[in-house]
Amino acid sequence: MLAIFTGLHLFNHLYSIAGADQHIEVMKSLRLVYRDILVEAILLMAVLLQIMSGIKLFKKNRKAAVSKIDKLHRWTGLYLAAFFIIHVGSVLAGRTVLHLDTNFYYGVAGLNTFPFNLFFIPYYALATISFFGHMAAIHSKKMKQAVFGWTPQRQAKAILGFGIILTAFLFYGLTNRFRGVEVPTEYNVLIGK
User: I need a labelling partner for 50 at 20 to 30 A (CA). Which of 60, 131, 173, 182 fits?
Assistant: First the structure.
């Protein structure tokens, strides 16, 4: 469920290539599902479970991670746990404490403002790449057969490569084609204005 939500969330961010208004329209449609009180509660529980199990597995497999794919699995999982804590906490605080619509502008305020972008560019890039790296590591471990002549390891590299390319496209859209996004005044609280 968490992977499906993340895929839809990334699709929504990719849609920012069409513009902020289009991104917000897609988000409004998706929110009809994931902002449902039951669905949101299940998603939050899934995030919490992923964080807790991920940290537990990180500690447990400390010495067992010897191969590159094991290390990729372990470190991307740890980064995703930290990212979920920060990101979900920030969105919930934005909604409940700051009373902001946590839409496109909430997400890109820091990404498009110096010096905050020095944090947010690697923060978001590593999150997206870690998601695909984590999926690639799991795929490499679970997949037992070649597909169209591609070994599971080559498939995993393709998944990771796709994630890296997608990350570049996401930044292209979330920064208004690298020209910067003008953030509405109600979001200035996020960037200290």
Answer: 173
Q: Can you tell me the distance from the alpha carbon of 167 to that of 18, in angstroms, rounded to the nearest whole number?
A: 16
pLDDT at residue 178, as a whole number: 97
Long-range CB contacts (within 8 A, 24+) of 94-97? 94/190
Do residues 73 and 81 make contact, with C-beta atoms less than 8 angstroms apart?
no
Provide CB contacts within 8 A for 51, sequence distance 6+.
81, 84, 85
- Tokens encoding 36: 């449902």
**One-character DSSP codes across 55-94:** HHHHHHTTTT--SHHHHHHHHHHHHHHHHHHHHHHHHHHH
Residue 174, SS3?
A: helix
- Rounded CA-CA distance 74/57 in Å is 8
Q: Which regions of the chain are under pLDDT 70? A: none
**What's the gap between Cα 185 and its chain centre?**
26
